[in-house]
Amino acid sequence: DAGVIQSPRHEVTEMGQEVTLRCKPISGHNSLFWYRQTMMRGLELLIYFNNNVPIDDSGMPEDRFSAKMPNASFSTLKIQPSEPRDSAVYFCASTTSDGISKLFFGSGTQLSVL
Amino acid sequence: AQKITQTQPGMFVQEKEAVTLDCTYDTSDQSYGLFWYKQPSSGEMIFLIYQGSYDEQNATEGRYSLNFQKARKSANLVISASQLGDSAMYFCAMSSMDSSYKLIFGSGTRLLVRP
């Protein structure tokens, strides 16, 4: 089992640039989550998809952030334009939605916006 | 609204001793699950243990056990026979059917195991 795959592992960009983070969930999982982790705010849920449909995006900080899930095996989180305060580790996680079950996390993307 | 509280920002434990990491939660949901995750310095999130709100027995996974006290709304993690590799951040989290299964995390406890 390949697990949740995120790319890139590290991203360094300049303020104002567009950043796209990618995620491939575990095959067969129909729920996908994007989290952001910072020292100040801990782990924050940004958005949650179920069967490729966004269910809860109340955690998305502002319009500069957008997320898509065009199919069951791929999701993107885009920041445009990026700002230094977006620097964080972004995690993707997946699970099945047939009851309460554990989340499987990817290795995360360390984003640094200069 | 759901809330997870971890009141211990950091803890020390001597190698081979047991340690308890505290977690309290707040919810009005009837059916929910409680989780603990470990995050070592390498950054990945590792699932440790799960307790369902209707489970009568406390969950155990090897050296990990979850001390579930429903009336007190607490779900403390007990690590027995601590090892140096247990040094990490530990996060308590909660999910419920009423909140569409999204997992909400506490602020975490950093555990350092002394040799």
Would you kindly provide a written description of the structure presented here, covering whatever features stand out?
The complex is a heterodimer of chains A (114) and B (115). With 114 residues, chain A is mainly beta. Chain A is built from no helices and 11 strands. In chain A, strands 2, 4, 5, 6, 9, 10 and 11 form a 7-stranded mixed beta sheet that branches. In chain A, strands 1-3-8-7 form a 4-stranded antiparallel beta sheet, with no helix packed on it. Chain A is globular, with a radius of gyration of 13 Å. The mean pLDDT of chain A is 93. With 115 residues, chain B is an all-beta fold. Helix content of chain B is 0%, strand content 52%. Chain B has strands at 3-5, 10-14, 19-21, 24-26, 32-39, 46-52, 60-61, 64-69, 74-79, 88-96, 104-105, 109-114. In chain B, the strands form 3 sheets. In chain B, strands 2, 5, 6, 10, 11 and 12 form a 6-stranded mixed beta sheet that branches. In chain B, strands 3-9-8-7 form a 4-stranded antiparallel beta sheet, with no helix packed on it. Chain B is globular and about 45 Å long. The mean pLDDT of chain B is 93.
